[in-house]
Amino acid sequence: MLGSIAAPAPSSTKPVRVLVIEGQALFAKALCQVLASDPEIDVVIATGGTGVTGRDVTPEAFHSVYEKEIAGFGELFRWQSYEKIGTSTIQSRATAGVAGGTYLFALPGSPGACRDAWDGILIHQLDNRFRPCNFVELMPRLRER
Amino acid sequence: MLGSIAAPAPSSTKPVRVLVIEGQALFAKALCQVLASDPEIDVVIATGGTGVTGRDVTPEAFHSVYEKEIAGFGELFRWQSYEKIGTSTIQSRATAGVAGGTYLFALPGSPGACRDAWDGILIHQLDNRFRPCNFVELMPRLRER
Amino acid sequence: MLGSIAAPAPSSTKPVRVLVIEGQALFAKALCQVLASDPEIDVVIATGGTGVTGRDVTPEAFHSVYEKEIAGFGELFRWQSYEKIGTSTIQSRATAGVAGGTYLFALPGSPGACRDAWDGILIHQLDNRFRPCNFVELMPRLRER
Questions:
Q1: What is the pLDDT of residues C39-61, one digit of tens each?
Q2: By CA distance, what is A75's nearest residue in C?
Q3: Hey, which of A30, A128, B134, C4 has its CA 20 to 30 A from C114?
């Protein structure tokens, strides 16, 4: 279930720990809760399970643990994909949010879609040099009250 | 309340049964539940009741029965409409989802907006020849576990 | 907490009363409830608290009082911002909805972002001359049953 530890964002001066969940997220909710509460994990990236069939349960699992939804992530991913795959982009229910001080991203399962999400959005937002702002620089403040 | 049976997607080799709900969706929630549980219905398309006035209750009715929301549908519809009607596009709360193995789409009530949603999105996604993927080919898998 | 009464939409023939909430929306939920139930207030515009840090609680407060969410507002704001700030736009959780017959808008805290939201969306939608439709002309119908 837990596939690999991804390399940190290429040019980040702060190493960003990213845990990648590959394949069908059968126990996505439980995983999210564990991962979101592990202080060693800054970012969870899940792949797969974002479609509309009966087995595509990742978005519901993610929503069940979100403290804050980042609606713009799925919007932007689908908008960027529209140029490539037209109306098929709406089949993707890619989603992101914050829980327990951890960023959670759910990407589609296809390697191409994952690459697009990384190259189009995450490579920038997980790079603490990106301007005007990025997700890395906000990590210390995710839990502030 | 139940207006008409729409023609199947033009070039689909599998006839897609589409039920169109016209006018004010006063009993939209009950309708959604009935339609979503009828195995003869593959797709429900409701028109009207997607605005912001007190009588516009279709989105709330749809959301109350969704097992899966297809957020990209409303996003893409509004984005396509932005070219035509500018910021007025945000008045549309068009929405889509899946319940009981049935696709549910809520379109605005104006004929022009319905035509735009059909021509811009549904004619493709309800055609099982559309690539890289379409909603028709996934119908047998909506209920899989 | 309550900053100022904004000028009505420039060319509106019906004065639109707009209450602007500036700064951190610590008591946003309570404020929303009060403002949404005050018949003298047509529109609430809150600024700040729409990011992803622990103190950014405005979207959750707004969602807790929405009777109807206007999903297209945040979508369009982020899409318009994408041209200016690239992927950083997804950090904005700008949101809008209707509660108690009042329009509620949550904008980011930066003056630039507020200006963009006003110039790009609100100046049109809070102007009852804007076509094909605008939020002002619908105000008498927000509470209809």
A1: 878 898 888 889 999 989 889 98
A2: C75
A3: A128
